[in-house]
Design goal:
The chain is built from 26 helices and two strands. With 480 residues, the protein is mainly alpha-helical. The relative contact order is 0.05. Pfam families: Ric8.
Length: 480
C-alpha cells in the first residue's frame, strides 16, 4: 500500500489553529501507525513538515502528535535527513529532556524517547547531534533511574507513575545502546567512566538479585521479572559496546566486577537464554581472571562443587552446559552466535590447564569399542555435536576445530582419533599440519584417550584413515 501525505495537507496545517493541527495530526498518525514504507512522502512534503515543527513553539498540545509523526516516519531511512533539519533535531532533544533542563512534559519525554530510538538508528546526522549535546545527560538520567535518586534536574520524575517511569528507563537504555554501538567517542568515554560502568552493571545486578530471590522462594516481585530482563539485556549490550575494543584499558576492578556478573549469569539456575548469550558475549572479550572463574578449592564445603584437581569447575561445567544448549537450539539465523560460546570455552581452556583437562574429560572421554563402528559426527554426545559444527558452513566451524585441537593438547593424532581425519583436515591443512599425520605417536597421544576394548579393535580403522588421507591431500591442492 502506498502511503501519501499530500503537500497541500501539510501546507494547510501551517495556518491552522492549535486545536485543528492537533486533531489532524492524531488522525494522520492513526492512519500511518501500522506502516513503515514512506518513500512516497516527497522532499517537499518533508520540508513543510519541518517548517510546521519549527513553528510549533507556541502550540504545546501539538508537540506529542508531532513527535509521534516523526517517530513513524523515521521507520524509513530514505529521505529522513530532509525532515531532520537542525531545528527539528533540537525539537526532539528538547522534548526528551536530554538537552536542557526545563519544564519536562511526561508525555512528550516518552514520545521523544521513542522518536530518538528510530532517528538514531536510521540517521547519522541525528547521532552526531545527539553525541554533541545529550550523551552525558542521558547517562546521568539512567543513573538516576537506576538508583531511584530523583533530585536536582531529575526532580520531575518523582511525579511520574511507576509504569511510565520504567518505560522511560527502558527507552533511555535503548538509546544508550544505539549511541554506544555507533560512536567510538562514546565507547571510549563510557568505557573509562566509573559512573557508566557502575550504572550498567547495577542494572544487570538488579536482574540477578531478583532471580536469586525467586530461587529462594521469594515470589513477591516475580511479576517484575520481564521488565528487569529487558533493562538488563539493554545494559549488557551497552557494557559489551563500551568494553570490547578496549579490554586491556578497562580498570581491573571493573573487569573483575564484569567477570563476577558473567559468572552469576552463566551459573544461574533461572537465567534467561537472552542474558546467557549476553554473558557469553562479554566473556569472549574479557581479560580472563582465572582465579575468579576457576578458584582453588579450600574448604570442605567448597569441595562439594564440581571440581578437578582441587579447582572449582562449576563455571566450566555451566559454560559447557550453556554451549550444549546452544548447539541443540542452533539454527541458521543465529549460527554465528555459537562462535562466542566456542571462543569463550577456547579462551578458558587455553588460560587454565585444569579447565582444559576438565573439559577434555567431559567432551573427550576415553574411547570405547563402539566408537569404531560409528562416525565421530554421529550421536548425541557433546563431542558428536561439536564435530558436526566442524563440518558446517558457519563461521563457528574454525573455532570448533581449534577448540577440539586445544582439548587434544594440539596432538594431530589425538585430534584425528577423536574427530576423524575428514573432519579435522581443514584445520590441519590451514595450520600446515597435514604432514604430521604419519609421525610416530607420542605416549601422550594414547594417554587417557582409549580404553582396553578400543585398543582391541583399533586396527580396524587404520585402512580407512589411509584412504581418507589420500582423498584429503588430493582435494587440498592449490590450483596453478
Amino acid at each position: 500500500m502506498t502511503i501519501v501525505i499530500s503537500e497541500q495537507q501539510v501546507l494547510s496545517l501551517l495556518t491552522a489553529s492549535e486545536e485543528e493541527i492537533t486533531r489532524q495530526l492524531q488522525e494522520l498518525n492513526a492512519t500511518l501507525g501500522a506502516h513503515s514504507d514512506f518513500l512516497s512522502v516527497g522532499a517537499g512534503t518533508r520540508q513543510h513538515l519541518a517548517k510546521l515543527i519549527e513553528s510549533s513553539n507556541d502550540k504545546p498540545s501539538s508537540h506529542a502528535p508531532l513527535l509521534e509523526l516523526l517517530r513513524i516516519l523515521a521507520r524509513d531511512k530514505r529521505q529522513l535527513d530532509v525532515l531532520l533539519t537542525k531545528p527539528v533535531r533540537e525539537f526532539i532533544l528538547q522534548a526528551s529532556g536530554l538537552m536542557d533542563a526545563g519544564c519536562e512534559v511526561v508525555q512528550n519525554v516518552v514520545e521523544a524517547d521513542k522518536c530518538l530510538v528510530n532517528t538514531l538508528f536510521n540517521s547519522a546526522t541525528m547521532r552526531q547531534t545527539f553525541e554533541g549535546v545529550a550523551t552525558s545527560n542521558l547517562l546521568d538520567r539512567i543513573s538516576a533511574l537506576t538508583k531511584s535518586d530523583y533530585t536536582g534536574r531529575h526532580e520531575w520524575i518523582n511525579g511520574v507513575p511507576e509504569g511510565v517511569r520504567n518505560s522511560l528507563w527502558l527507552f533511555d537504555l535503548r538509546i544508550a545502546f544505539l549511541v554506544s554501538a555507533h560512536s567510538s567517542i562514546v565507547q571510549n568515554n563510557w568505557g573509562s567512566s566509573p559512573l557508566a560502568l557502575t550504572t550498567f552493571l547495577d542494572i544487570v545486578r538488579q536482574y540477578i538479585k531478583l532471580l536469586e530471590g525467586m530461587v529462594d522462594g521469594e515470589t513477591a516481585e516475580a511479576s517484575d521479572l520481564p521488565g528487569h530482563l529487558e533493562r538488563a539485556s539493554e545494559a549488557a549490550k551497552v557494557l559489551f559496546n563500551i568494553t570490547y575494543k578496549q579490554t586491556d584499558n578497562i580498570n581491573e576492578q571493573y573487569t573483575n566486577e564484569i567477570t563476577e556478573v558473567v559468572c552469576q549469569l552463566i551459573k544461574g539456575k533461572n537465567s534467561s537464554p537472552v542474558m546467557e548469550q549476553h554473558a557469553v558475549n562479554l566473556l569472549s572479550t574479557l581479560r580472563l581472571n582465572i582465579n575468579m572463574l576457576c578458584p582453588k578449592v579450600n574448604t570442605a564445603e567448597e569441595r562439594q562443587t564440581e571440581q578437578y584437581d582441587l579447582y572449582d569447575m562449576s563455571f566450566a561445567q555451566a559454560l559447557l552446559d550453556a554451549m550444549e544448549r546452544k548447539l541443540d537450539d542452533n539454527n541458521n539465523s543465529d549460527s554465528d552466535l555459537l562462535s562466542t560460546y566456542l571462543g569463550s570455552a577456547l579462551k578458558l581452556c587455553t588460560a587454565s590447564k585444569e579447565a582444559r583437562r576438565y573439559c577434555r574429560l567431559k567432551i573427550l572421554p576415553p574411547l570405547v569399542a563402539a566408537d569404531v563402528v560409528r562416525r565421530p559426527d554421529e550421536g548425541d554426545s557433546l563431542r558428536n555435536k561439536i564435530v558436526r559444527v566442524m563440518m558446517s558452513p558457519a563461521f563457528s566451524k574454525d573455532l570448533a576445530s581449534e577448540f577440539m585441537f586445544v582439548l587434544c593438547k594440539r596432538s594431530v593424532n589425538r585430534l584425528i582419533k577423536y574427530t576423524g581425519l575428514g573432519h579435522s583436515a581443514g584445520l590441519l591443512a590451514n595450520s600446515g599440519l597435514l604432514g604430521h599425520i604419519n609421525l610416530p605417536k607420542s605416549a601422550s597421544d594414547s594417554e587417557d584417550s582409549e580404553t582396553e576394548d578400543y585398543k582391541a579393535v583399533e586396527d580396524r580403522i587404520q585402512t580407512n584413515d589411509t584412504l581418507k588421507l589420500i582423498f584429503v591431500r588430493r582435494n587440498c591442492q592449490t590450483s596453478d
